[in-house]
Every structure is written in structure tokens, then in C-alpha cells.
Amino acid sequence: MKMRPEYQSQGEYEPLDSCDERILSVINELHHRDDPMPEDLNERVELVLELEAQLDARIAKVSRSGELVLTRGEAELTVGQGDPASITFDCESVTVMVTPRPSSLQELRLDGWIGPEGTYEVELRSPDGSRRASSDETGRFVLEGLPDGQMFQLVVRPSEALQREGLPAVVVTPAVRL
Fold first, then answer.
1. For residue range 45-96, what is the model confidence (pLDDT) as tens digits?
2. Which residues pair with 133 in a beta bridge?
3. Is the pTM of this model over 0.85?
4. Taking a C-beta distance cutoff of 8 angstroms, is the pair 60, 173 a contact?
5. Element (H or E) spanning 32, and its range?
6. Segment 140-144 long-range contacts (CB within 8 Å, at least 24 positions apart)
């Protein structure tokens, strides 16, 4: 393909001119409007750095469900309106299922089940801080008084007995919105 004569004098190392600046400005505006930086980007980066520091952490993935609505990328899902929707997270050896339910005005209760059966320590991370719960022997746990509409992430730590059976020391879910 031959270059048009009026562009032959413009090399790739030429300084930017006003036309280049207008094009870059439009591209910048489009990015800010159509794909703004997530408000929780710093928290996400800190989480990844923290996970890299832990040797035996596994990242669980969301098992897709028709009740979930994708709102941005793979990492942020919103539970649909109406009946409570269950969210299932899977990694190679652990499955975590949670069901958010309204408990009072603008608060939720999170009922959860972890498999395989056994005892687990569960940490829920949100912008408001962390909350902890322990599962019973069947893997069931409950977290109450959670703010409606916030992002949360679960960190699951199997008991030492389960780790000796081959489960990872830490399983982390992606962040989802209640």
C-alpha cells in the first residue's frame, strides 16, 4: 500500500501536532465515558499483591448462573432483583455457595455452604472492613448485618485436617456486589 503524498513527510518520530492532540483528547473522553476506571481499583490491586505474598492461595471462579447480571468485566457481578440468587464459586478442590437474603432495611444475611464438608474459617472483605465466621462440620456458615449493594469478597481457610487431606490453605473468591 502506497502512502498518500500529503502524509509522506509525517514520520513516526515527528512531534505531536494539534490534530494528534485532538484525536488523543477524543480517545481519552471515550475511555472515561465508556470504560471508566473502577472506583475499587486500588483495593483490587492490593488484594492481588497480598495474594501473591501467600504461598498456597487459590482463586475461585464464579460459576455462571442465569440469575447473575454481568456489570463490568469478569470480576464484578450483581445479584439480580427479586428472589435471592445463589452464587457459586469453584476452584480445583473447594466449592463455595452463598445466598444473600434481606434481613432488615438495607441489610442482608449471607447463608453459605462450603464443600467438601468440614470446618472452615470464612472472612468476608468489603469496603467497610472484614467480618469473620466459622462453618460447622457440614461447611455451613452465616454472616449477618451486611450492607446491601456493597462489593464483597470471601477468603476461605480450611481447617488443618482438611489441608492435610489436600485442600489449599486459602481460597479467595472474586469480588461480587450484594
1. 777 666 655 556 677 778 755 444 433 344 444 444 434 578 899 988 899 9
2. 122
3. no
4. yes
5. helix 18-34
6. 140/111, 140/112, 140/113, 140/114, 141/111, 141/112, 141/113, 141/114, 142/109, 142/110, 142/111, 142/112, 143/109, 143/110, 143/112, 144/103, 144/107, 144/109, 144/110
Spell out the domain ranges in the chain. 41-177
The CATH class, in words, for 41-177 is mainly beta
Please list the residues that pair with 7 across neighbouring strands: none
The 10 Å CB-count burial string (b at 16+, else e) for 38-50 is eeeeebbeebeee
**Amino acid, single-letter form, for residue 60:** A
Cell numbers that stand for 130 in this block: 472484614
- Residue pair 85/65 in contact (Cβ under 8 Å)? The answer is yes
CB 72, CB 38: distance < 8 Å: yes
